[in-house]
Amino acid sequence: MTFDTYQDKAQMTDQHPGQAENSLVVPLLGLAGESGSLLTEYKKLLRDGAAYRVFSERIQEEIGDILWYVANIATKAGLRLEEIAESNLTKIQNRWNPPAETPLLPGNKFLDESYPASEHLPRIFRVSIREEQGPPPRVRIFWGDDQIGSHLTDNAYNDDGYRFHDVFHLAFAAILGWSPVARAIMRKKRKSDRQTDEVEDGGRAAVIDEAIAALAFDYAKRHAFLEGVSTLDYGFLNTIKSLTEHLEVSVRSLHTWERAILQGFDVWRQIVAHGGGIVLGNQYEGTLKFEPHEITKP
To answer: What is the pTM of this model?
Structure first.
């Protein structure tokens, strides 16, 4: 039996059909009630253990009732269960189990692959981040012998390490293959195509990149800067996807965004602890790593 067949047959037993407001209230309340009944069955299992031999039978019945109410709500909302199920699987796949997205795997590619090599974000890069004592303390970033970007401070009343936030843009570049900010400071804007330069690499895209870094920093600040954290809230990740849905990076999954942010903060924490260091990015592997500066012996 398909979801749609079940939905149509379930609708034939609806005692409050129609599209009126009260006709939707009944299945909504019913769904809440049956969810409570499901929890009650689990409570009985916890209480009685193996002696509660009808647990599977009762659970099946409660899940069936929940399914009926879900089907009824979908019908009254003008939706089809088949489409809901497919959409949900796509969402879950994108969040938890997407295909690996490192560019070298079949079906994947660098976002700037079709542009001249001189305009590519570096596939492998080694960036040095150096802190200078203040007040206020500030950061300079070097790619090879050249300083890239501006001197950065925390721009805050308290020292919170935001002056090192370019690490996040480097993480986006290495793991997502995207960062208008990294592209700008590395002088890799795609000038060969006017529209790409304006839309993908221009000011608005750069502001979105900075906004995501600030959003991630605020989120991380409330979660111990993600130390020991392995998953991020779906709502937080979905906000980022919404911000970038009109840009080329929209092809990257929530899971890949999660990896970029977690790896970015892993390196950021080490950079803060060492007062600087080397950031190693690898688009082929989709990784960002930390390496301490060599200590010059007297």
So the answer is: 0.82
